[in-house]
Amino acid sequence: MTAVQNLGFSTLFDPDNPQLELQSSIVFVHGLQGHPKDTWTYNKQHVSESVEQQSAKKPSRVIKRLLGIKKKENEPNSSGTKDVFWPRDLLVNENETQKARIMTYGYDSHVTTFFEANNHDNISKQAESFMVPLQQAREENAQRPLILVAHGLGGIIIKGALEESKRSEHRPQFLSIYNSLRGIIFLGTPHGGSTMADWGLIATGIVKFTSQGCNSKALKGFQPDSEILEFYRKCFLKMLQDQRFTIHSFYEKRGTSGILGFQGKAGHSPRTLL
């Protein structure tokens, strides 16, 4: 199996048959303090099998729905495996996704690195770093349907990339990313409003735990009244009005504990989505 790189794109699956035409691209983007593999890997030692089957497979079911894949009567169970890297272990085993290129994307999401720079410039830079190689990977068929899966901060970077793509009249090769988008799955992404307060607490807690300084002005960029998040929220609202793609947003019903003193919910409810 292809090793997953910490930075940039790693292809988890690409059809071996040259005669088989790719029908879609599925891309995973991790969040703050995340990893292109570890974020999407489920360790069965920590949760009972019944919970695993509900939590680890739910996002993959949404992807199948976006691709028009019907549920199998006897869907295989991965209970014999210690860890489940579900973008590869679950999606790739589906016959219908044999025509999809599946990739995961990694970037420097360490809190002391990400929050030190100007937030708007950093998100814009990360969005550009995501968009350019994605376009290059799709050059052979730039109009191929695209599905994006984002966790936490990865959802903000995706919004930034889509905004860059949509207004790329001077770089028309990037317009295809926005035009070919069919769906986005957000997992605990703070879209704005009260959810952003949690991000400030998480970031501050991590900084205190690691005993590393962090720009207080940068942290304010992820507070409820953040101009940066409000900018991307409004941009995304305009995109939704185009009705080009659908979104699915998952959030926690139970509080998260053990994250460096933070205790709360990631993403909150759909009412705070946009």
TrEMBL record:
It comes from the Eukaryota. Keywords: Endoplasmic reticulum, Hydrolase, Membrane, Mitochondrion. One of its GO terms (cellular component) is mitochondrion. Gene3D superfamilies: alpha/beta hydrolase. GO terms for molecular function: hydrolase activity. GO terms for biological process: antibiotic biosynthetic process; monocarboxylic acid biosynthetic process. PANTHER family: PROTEIN SERAC1. This is P-loop containing nucleoside triphosphate hydrolase.
